[in-house]
Amino acid sequence: MDTLKLLVESNPCAVNAQDNDGETPLHYAAHSYGRLTSTYKGAFQYLLENGVDASIQNHEGRTPFQFLCDRYDDGIPLDAATMSLLYTEREDLSHGDANGNTSLHKMASQWDRVEAVKFLLDRAADVGIKNLKGNTALHEAAIGRFIPGYVPPEKLRSEFDGMMKVLLEAGGDGAVNVKNTAGRMARETFEDLWIKKEHIPYVTEKIRILVVDLGAEVDRKARFIL
Question: First-to-last CA distance in the chain?
Fold first, then answer.
């Protein structure tokens, strides 16, 4: 922080300087968040107080906020307060990376990021957007990203329950029946990975009923109407 302050004080205009990739100091700070959480959160605040523009995009059209949402499986919580620091009203939550993954796709795949997902949904992030594989946020949540054995089953159950409930509430009952480019529904992905492979310790009966049985019932009704 001392070095950052010295640089800003010596050249205040540098806070919005962009490198060859179009990235500002805030992009770098957001990308590094999680390694030294308190330090980088302080860096966000300091840069914002000194005129940094959080809406500046790099040459790929990506903002510091999107960099913040890129982080995978580092075990560091991403809370709404931190996200609020970098979020601006000009943020395009439908913007995907090279694989078509939006910030919601990335956060949904990490079951401990329910608060982050709620933050995005509260700002009208679209659960139905598909990545290049045709996966929605529900597909990504059904797949999940974690290290087996690293997190206790009871904690995973709680996190998975929370994530699926939030996404299903936002997407509606039929959201689990949306097909990806391989023709697979989110509920089929869920069944293949967590039911048929008998990873029962990670799945509660309530969520099994909600995702599998309810999804199948919605699908049957739709076929009947057609």
Answer: 62
Ordered by where they begin, the domains of the chain are 1-92 (1.25.40.20), 98-226 (1.25.40.20)
Q: Which letter does DSSP use for residue 199 in this model?
A: -
Cα 72 off chain centre by: 9
Q: What is the phi-psi region of residue 23: left when phi exceeds 0, alpha when psi lies from -120 to 50, beta otherwise?
A: beta
Q: What is the DSSP letter of 151?
A: S
Give the tokens for residue 11. Answer: 């050249």
CB–CB of 218/173 below 8 Å? yes
Residue with tokens 């910030």: 103
| Digit-coded pLDDT (tens) for 140-177 | 998 887 655 566 767 777 888 889 889 989 987 678 88
pTM tops 0.85 = no
